[in-house]
Design brief:
By secondary structure, the chain is of the alpha/beta class. It is 39% helix and 15% strand. Helix 1 packs across helix 7, helix 2 runs antiparallel to helix 5 and helix 3 packs across helix 5. The chain is globular, with a radius of gyration of 19 Å.
């Protein structure tokens, strides 16, 4: 069983084994539901870009769309702005960063005695307040923050459009320590959704592919 855009190039058996292709969005949904143990959720696959699938246990998977912001964005901007091409180095830089030297927050543009409903710590503009003294650490943290915030808000909109409360995060971007920090923060902001990062989240799509083989995959299960 194979999935992903690269699998479309495989037109013959490999090592004497029949190769069957599973739609990636089906695999994302199947794997996310299995790992989370939930019956109904929006599954977010954070790879090079980001894909979102509404999945139900025992039901069809609905691709909701996605965004080009993802791991590719993180790596490309980090290479361009701080000459870092290694995820471990990006995380190391970010650990010393200060978002106040990069991002514009609500509290930066709102009077302290304002009764505004928005949390003063929320980002008003990613990279909207870049300081002349911003360090590599500040910029690395700003890039991480922008990527995760973009994914978070798009996921919230997707979940609301389907009347779903649980959002399951999968893919390699779940392995970065800032991921849990950022989404725990979102869980406390009152958006009416819950972000979940299951164990082995980085393997969700391939697990969904394997499960599709065991259960007998039918392409019409993707609706």
């Amino acid at each position: 069983m194979m999935t992903g855009v690269g699998s479309s190039h495989i037109k013959r058996n490999l090592y004497g084994l029949e190769c069957r292709r599973v739609e990636e969005f089906h695999a994302i949904g199947k794997g996310g539901i299995y790992l989370s143990g939930l019956d109904d959720a929006v599954i977010v696959s954070m790879g090079t870009g980001t894909a979102m699938v509404h999945a139900r246990s025992g039901g069809g998977m609905k691709h909701l769309g996605g965004t080009g912001v993802g791991g590719g964005t993180l790596m490309g901007l980090s290479k361009l702005l701080i000459s870092a091409e290694n995820v471990e180095h990006i995380e190391e830089f970010a650990g010393e960063g200060d978002l106040s030297n990069v991002d514009l927050r609500i509290k930066d543009i709102t009077a302290k005695d304002s009764n505004a409903e928005l949390n003063a710590e929320l980002t008003a503009s990613n990279f909207g307040n870049v300081s002349d003294i911003a360090t590599k650490g500040d910029i690395a943290l700003g890039i991480l923050n922008m990527v995760y915030e973009s994914i978070a808000m798009t996921s919230i909109f997707a979940a609301r459009s389907r009347g779903v409360k649980d959002i399951v995060l999968t893919g390699n971007l779940t392995k970065l320590s800032y991921c849990k920090t950022k989404f725990d923060e979102f869980n406390g902001l009152g958006y009416g959704v819950r972000f979940v990062i299951p164990e082995l989240a980085q393997f969700a799509t391939v697990i969904g592919t394997a499960l599709s083989g065991i259960e007998g995959y039918k392409s019409e299960e993707l609706i």
